[in-house]
């Protein structure tokens, strides 16, 4: 299978790629365009036995590639995708319902991932250690090197069909580890496409397999097979905890949900804060673990901030994801949109005030601004995966910190203030993996560490550098140094 796409018409079929070989079967998973419900593609529905065979094929030993060879494969893949960037963005839009503005940005992010991984493949991070440093020492020198894991399995979610996959696959190639990847059954096409591009770019067959199917049928093999040395999972808390209970004696990178706050204090630039809120709440249709899920606002500026946010939200163009002028497309399905509508209705019934939105048409669900939201409302205690903008009013920074820390999540946070004393407190006291000052919670480079604590993850970071560390073992060797 080459990388050429035929996505202008619905109905294309992407086979799995196992050991570089296309694999299909009569039983298929249909992929539908959320905006219209039309079938736009399909992938094979593999069973557990077929996935087990894929794992055992990969575990037979990945080919040894030099650092230069790994880097070149990743750079060639990036060049191929960049040449087809518009078509790839349309592919993501077809399967996810995300607007072209969002999917074009996702393609650019995935290109960063591939290129950063290519550069990191060339970096030798080994150490040289002296051993005559105490009375118990000897005249020896020690050296460290990183050796790739033999097999990593990866499971990715629907909300970033290309970039989340790139964040698993590119570091595994850069580190030299074999990988068996299961993309979301809702958005599998971009993952199969990326694998095809990588093989076209020279990736040996044993390095990457993509398996598709019902997670209830094939998920256990990906987590419990004895050949698997690392499970890299991005997705919901419930499934992440279920995986953690199945791991046994193997490591895992679990990047789970988020309930990220944007904290707006008295001295904030309210125009900037409203702009960050719109971007943070509505980008990717609000379907990001790092999306702004709670707006924690000082009550002294809350009225003015709420008015600006409602006015800015009304300017967001919601509609056909394929229209280049659309600012926000659909959520992943009509069922998901109905859940968001119901969550807003529940929040309003608990005493919140609707300032804008809560309008649904099929899988389209527009920006929804609610003020004076009770802190115990399920919609702000749990992760709401959509374009909600709930405002929680607080008296001061002490209460803001308490409210921000008052859920089971701890992924990231954004802070709007110009007072460096407040910045220092917030960086120290917010219990999360990232704090961004005058920026949305999710901002980062594809190279920087990323991950959360509490129910947001196990503390094992993603980002290209940290993922490569997780996919390798450190070996120490020593030699005489007379």
Automatic annotation (TrEMBL):
Pfam families: Aldedh (PF00171). NAD(+) binds at residues 156-158, 182-185, 236, 383. Belongs to the aldehyde dehydrogenase family. PANTHER family: ALDEHYDE DEHYDROGENASE. Gene3D superfamilies: Aldehyde Dehydrogenase, Chain A, domain 1, Aldehyde Dehydrogenase, Chain A, domain 2. The active site is at 255, 255 (proton donor/acceptor), 289 (nucleophile). GO terms for molecular function: lactaldehyde dehydrogenase (NAD+) activity. It comes from Sorangium cellulosum So0157-2. Residues 26-475 form the Aldehyde dehydrogenase domain. InterPro entries: Ald_DH/histidinol_DH, Ald_DH_C, Ald_DH_CS_CYS, Ald_DH_CS_GLU, Ald_DH_N, Aldehyde_DH_dom, ALDH-related_metabolic_enz, Put_phosphonoacetaldehyde_DH. Keywords: NAD, Oxidoreductase. This is DeoR faimly transcriptional regulator.
């Amino acid at each position: 299978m080459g990388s050429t796409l035929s996505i202008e018409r619905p109905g294309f079929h992407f086979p799995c790629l196992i050991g570089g070989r296309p694999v299909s079967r009569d039983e298929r998973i249909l992929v539908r365009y959320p905006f219209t419900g039309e079938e736009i593609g399909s992938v094979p529905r593999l069973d557990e036995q077929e996935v087990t065979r894929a794992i055992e094929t990969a575990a037979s030993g990945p080919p040894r590639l030099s650092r230069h060879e790994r880097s070149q494969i990743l750079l060639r893949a990036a060049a191929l995708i960049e040449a087809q960037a518009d078509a790839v963005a349309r592919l993501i839009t077809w399967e996810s319902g995300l607007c072209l503005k969002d999917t074009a940005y996702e393609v650019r992010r995935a290109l960063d991932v591939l290129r950063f991984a290519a550069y990191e493949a060339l970096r030798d991070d080994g150490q040289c250690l002296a051993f005559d440093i105490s009375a118990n020492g000897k005249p020896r020198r020690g050296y460290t090197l990183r050796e790739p894991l033999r097999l990593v399995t990866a499971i990715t979610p629907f909300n970033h069909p290309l970039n989340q996959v790139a964040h698993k696959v590119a570091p595994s190639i850069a580190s030299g580890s074999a990988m068996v990847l299961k993309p979301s059954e809702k958005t599998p096409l971009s993952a199969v496409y990326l694998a095809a591009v990588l093989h076209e770019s020279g990736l040996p067959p044993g390095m990457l397999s993509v398996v598709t199917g019902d997670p209830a049928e094939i998920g256990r093999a990906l987590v419990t097979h004895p050949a698997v040395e690392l499970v890299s999972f991005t997705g919901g808390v419930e499934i992440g905890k279920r995986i953690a209970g199945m791991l046994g004696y193997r490591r895992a990178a679990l990047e789970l949900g988020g309930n990220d706050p944007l904290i707006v204090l008295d001295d904030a630039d309210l125009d900037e804060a409203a702009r960050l809120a719109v971007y943070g709440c509505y980008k990717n249709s609000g379907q990001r673990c790092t999306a702004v899920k709670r707006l924690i606002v000082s009550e002294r500026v809350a009225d003015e901030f709420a008015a600006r946010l409602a006015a800015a939200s009304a300017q967001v163009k919601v509609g056909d994801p394929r229209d280049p002028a659309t600012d926000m497309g659909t959520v992943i399905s009509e069922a998901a949109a109905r859940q968001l509508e119901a969550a807003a209705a529940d929040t309003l019934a608990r005493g919140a005030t609707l300032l804008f939105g809560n309008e649904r048409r099929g899988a389209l669900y527009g920006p929804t601004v609610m003020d004076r939201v009770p802190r115990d409302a399920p919609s702000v205690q749990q992760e709401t995966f959509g374009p909600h903008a709930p405002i929680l009013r607080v008296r001061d920074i002490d209460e803001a910190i308490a409210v921000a820390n008052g859920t089971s999540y701890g992924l990231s946070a954004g802070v709007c203030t110009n007072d460096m004393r407040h910045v220092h407190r917030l960086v120290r006291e917010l219990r999360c993996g990232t704090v961004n000052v005058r920026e949305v919670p999710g901002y980062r480079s594809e190279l920087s560490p990323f991950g959360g604590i509490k129910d947001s993850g196990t503390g094992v970071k993603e980002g290209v550098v940290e993922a490569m560390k997780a996919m390798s073992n450190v070996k120490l060797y020593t030699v005489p140094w007379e």
